[in-house]
Amino acid sequence: MPTLETTDPKLARRCRYAQHRGKKATLTISGSLVTGLVHAVMQVKSSNPTRWIITVGAKQGMAA
Q1: Residue 20 belongs to a domain
Q2: Spatial separation of the C-alpha atoms in residues 2 and 29, rounded to whole Å
Q3: Is 3's pLDDT higher than 60?
Q4: What gap in Å lies between CA 21 and CA 33, rounded to an integer?
Q5: Residues 6 or more apart in contact with residue 17 via CB below 8 angstroms
């Protein structure tokens, strides 16, 4: 499963909403668009600034 690490709170919030609603999210991971269901949004509080690790259940490829 592709993972993304971000410090953008808006992106983390959008992914968390998509996870709870059961909707697909489209993210750019390593320059490739990935579309799929968000499996996890984990906050890493010990870092400064706060980071989020987002796991998406999808195959890499073009966004649908």
Answers
A1: yes
A2: 8
A3: yes
A4: 21
A5: none
The residues that bridge with 25 in the sheet, in sequence order, are: 36
**How far apart are alpha carbons 5 and 56 in whole angstroms?**
11
For residue 62, being part of any structural domain is answered with no
Domain that holds residue 51: 3-57
pLDDT at 62: 52
What are the tens digits of pLDDT across the range 12-45? 999 999 999 999 998 888 888 888 999 999 999 8
**DSSP string across 16-51:** HHHHHHT-EEEEEETTEEEEEEEEEEEEETTSSS-E
The values of phi and psi at residue 10, to 5°, are: -65, -40
Q: What predicted TM-score, i.e. pTM, was given to this entire model?
A: 0.80
How many domains, in total, are found in the chain? 1
